[in-house]
Amino acid sequence: MNVRRHHISAAALAAVTALGLGTLTACSSDSTAAGNTDKFDVVASFYPMAFLAEQIGGEHVSVTSLTQPGQEPHDLEISAKQTAQLQESDAALYLKGLQPTVDEAIGQSEVGTKIDAATLTSLESHAAEAGGHEDERADEHADEHTDEHSAEEEHGHEHEDGQDPHVWLDPVKYAEVAEGVGKAFEKADPDHAADYKKNTEALVGKLNALDEKFEAGLAGKKNSVFITTHAAFGHLAERYGLTEEAISGLDPESEPSGARVKELQKTAKADGVTTVFYETLVSDETAKTLAADTGLKTDVLDPLEGITDKSRGDDYFQVMEANLEALQTALGAK
User: How many CB atoms lie within 10 A of CB 35?
Assistant: First the structure.
């Protein structure tokens, strides 16, 4: 089949293991890292890409994630050894605009199949489209969103066109990405194309069911505004008629201004916001401070950038369902 294979020694394999490339377990128990000679070897940039590769590739792939479980993917710095390891893989699956060092490493690599998830669906700037939300208050916050996104340009944590890269949190867009990844796998590894096609169809079906669950679960919401620490949920908010107000911008580590915190306090009071959401991979200090100052509760809304022992579930679907329950509670939908 049209797949590059590289035979590497036991010593080389030992060195690869020491690199700290987080090998996922579902389909790669017999492989220590990318470059395994028996399967279609995929290097994925971080968890949402690795999950797609595993679900679509099934038994035919060996998937290795560049981002360790528990590591904040925005901050990933690829080592020279990891960059070299890319050369041993058959395919690289990433989302351009989220991890600049990954973009550079894959761009300069000789990997035969490079799959950029950002090209497989439509990315949007939620600052520019704030007025498109069903919630009436969206227009009032358009300028604020624009300011946040402008500030984030310095951090490099957004797509090159200023668009939000967090497409996996919208099940519909994630399904579009899955379809594109499936077609790329079929082309790169035609011997197993039928299985890739079947697995892709099954995954898309599950994502469509998840979308329907979100639609039904949020249909009875009493309000539409939610506050998060990290502006990761713009695509999800767009899909289900919600308005995300982020303490920080697209960069989860950036510090909010005092003016922004005061504005959010007013927003919480005006919109009946009950909860400030934080995430598992970033400190909850800012969220708890804002919540304490406004008399609000805190809860987790997981951007699913990695699965850890603290995650409310073992995979994408379990954590997304936990996110739905948290939103239902916060928005008065249950």
Answer: 24
pLDDT of residue 126: 59
DSSP-assigned letter for residue 73: G
Amino acid at 295: G
pLDDT classification of 292: cutoffs 50, 70, 90:
confident
**Is it the case that residue 157 has pLDDT exceeding 60?**
no
Q: Which tokens go with 300?
A: 């987790």
Residue-wise pLDDT tens digits, 190-234: 999 999 999 999 999 999 999 999 999 999 999 999 999 878 999
**Alpha helical stretches, state H, 160-219:** 171-188, 193-217
- Side by side, the strands of the sheet bearing 275-278 are 243-246, 225-228, 275-278, 297-300
Helices (H) and strands (E) in the chain, counts: 11, 9
Q: Measure Cα distances from 257 to 71, 144, 146, 161, 260 in Å.
A: 26, 12, 15, 25, 5
Whether the Cβ atoms of residue 64 and residue 44 lie closer than 8 Å to each other: yes
Q: Residue 278 has which token pair?
A: 């934080």
Query: Tokens representing 219?
Result: 């249909």
